[in-house]
Amino acid sequence: MASLIFVTGGVVSSLGKGISAASLASALENRGLKVTMIKLDPYINVDPGTMSPFQHGEVFVTEDGAETDLDLGHYERFIRTRMGKINNYTTGRIYSNVIAKERHGDYLGATVQVIPHITDEIKQGVEKAAEGFDIAMVEIGGTVGDIESLPFLEAIRQLGVEYGRQAIFMHLTLVPYLKAAGEVKTKPTQHSVKELRSIGIQPDVLICRSERMLTEQERRKISLFTNVEERAVISAVDVDNIYQLPVYFHQQGLDDIVLEKLGIEANRSYLDDWIEVDDRISNTQHEITVAMVGKYVDHSDAYKSLSEAVRHGGLRQRIKVNIRAVDSSTINREGLDSLADVDAILVPGGFGPRGFEGKVKAIQFARENNIPYLGICYGMQAAVVEFARNVCGMEGANTTENDIDTPYPVIAMITEWLDATGKREIRSEDSDLGGTMRLGGQRCRLRPDTLARKVYAEDVIVERHRHRYEFNNNYRAEIKQKGMVLSGVSADETLVEIIELPEHPFFLACQFHPEFTSSPRGGHPLFNGFIEAALRYQQEVRGALPDGVVRL
Ligand code: GLN
Q1: Catalytic amino acids?
Q2: Which of 149, 426, 429, 504 qualifies as a FRET site for 134, CA 20 to 30 Å off?
């Protein structure tokens, strides 16, 4: 039976609960334990697939095709265990399971209630995901005191009783520093713990986020008021980069305290890989700028995995990567100024017509000026549209997502390109937008002698998908004949997965999302290749020109 570490948050949201939990999980994993993580989300959506990344941050996709909370992305970047469907439960999922069972007659006439039916469903979910591991960390979304999280807190309270010493509770709070008073205030933490205790949960460990390290006296005070041992009141100030956290928490004794409380013997800690990552982030030798041309640019978490992956791409060569967020709806043919001085251009995944034409223009600019380009999902579809229009002469070419009547539907739903003449036979009705996409890890075959084959150094790769539209095979021959290379195809050869332009120093776009499998400890071949191409471009092309002169 796995030991359980429950992680809750108090006072305010955005304290970095997921990252803190993942950092501790990593420190434990590096001591030779098998660790997994589970996220329990109180919202009613069955999964975050239908939620706007603008409001909620990115939708993270797992290998087994689940659309999950972005915290699972943090988990995979910190620990080696891969996440799946069973690692993320929402209120919506729990209720829909319970309601399905009720309709099926599984409750044998019982009145179905929050306690015990909903709480049992939550407990079963946790235990299923924890099976086979030494430790499972269970993070509860939201903040203690929210109405929605009550059933989850009740379920973990019950698990705490059942597991006895094999379960502990860790609570993250804020300890604000008041300038006017010149001191930190522990009252919000006291209240937050009081709230937890009123529902029967006594935290074992407190992680106190504050602007400055708490003094011994302050920690003693918090300990006294919250009934948490003084040494288990951990002070957490902002770090330079999040990948310092496993070491940071270890230095504060967090993994030792947790293991001692759980009665687990483990190896000595080994954190060299994180020290190495931090060294590569802190001691860079080069600096480049990548323009990320997208839609949801004003919400920093909307492209969380992507911005992490782009930065990881620089670590191998100690390149600091600045990301310039460019709102594609501001780009038009004349207004490419925001791209004039960058070292590379990236168009990420996206949906719908807003800003699409700006993306196409940015791609044309990258293609014509030999600026390294990486297109992801929508960024590949836009690259195919651009090439069809401007190189193949297919005026008005488009994806049917944006123009259902385009004369050249080079990107369309498979149901729309069944007709061998390229004319649409069926028009799909977008009736149900939840769970209708090609999702999850799929095999892709790489063609020999291509850039893709070179950067991956493998013949077959597995990458994760999340999209409805595809490269229309009826245009394969014509587009290939004009010089675009289809360097990656699905294992059965039926779908185009990667395109590239051999005449260009680095122009590659993929239908899948490589950002979901990038990690700070190894990067990802595509991002490594892309960022290194950006550095070459900066040194060889831009560096060779006098200041301020842009090659157009
Ligand atoms: N909107 C496109 C599709 O559904 C691309 C999706 C994406 O970029 N993730 O195919």
Answers
A1: 377, 513, 515
A2: 149
Residue 349 CA, closest ligand 1 atom number: 8
For ligand 1, atom 8, which residue shows the shortest CA distance?
349
Q: Which residues pair with 291 in a beta bridge?
A: 324, 345
* Ligand 1, atom 3, residue with closest C-alpha: 467
- Tell me the CA–centroid distance for residue 468 and ligand 1, in Å: 6
Taking only the tens place, the pLDDT of each residue in 399-455 is: 999 999 999 999 999 888 765 454 444 444 434 445 568 899 999 999 999 999 999
Q: Which residues contact 124 (CB under 8 A, 6 or more apart)?
A: none
**Helical residues (DSSP H) of 131-265, grouped into ranges:** 150-163, 187-198, 216-226, 245-251, 254-262
Choosing from 466, 472, 496 the residue with most ligand 1 atoms within 8 A of its CB, the one to mutate for a pocket test is 466
Measured in whole angstroms, how far is the alpha carbon of residue 241 from the centre of its chain? 17
Q: Tell me, what amino acid is at 105?
A: G
User: Hey, what domains does the chain have and what are their CATH numbers?
Assistant: 3-275 (3.40.50.300), 285-422+434-542 (3.40.50.880)
Q: Report the predicted TM-score, pTM, of the whole model to 2 decimal places.
A: 0.91
Q: Which candidate, 483, 484, 498, places its Cα nearest to that of 447? A: 498
DSSP H helical ranges for 208-244: 216-226
